[in-house]
Amino acid sequence: MIRRGRDMKWQIAIGAILLVAASTEFSLAADPRYPDWPCTQAKVPEISLAAVWAGPSLDDIKDKWKDDARVSALVPKLAARRTSLEDAQKLITELLASSAADKAMTGKLLFAGLFDSLNAQRSSVLNGLERITRKQRDAADNIRADVFALQALHGASPPDQPRIDELGNQMVWQTRIFEDRQRVVKFVCEVPTAIDQRLFALGRMIQQEIE
Question: What is the pTM of this model?
Answer without folding.
Answer: 0.80
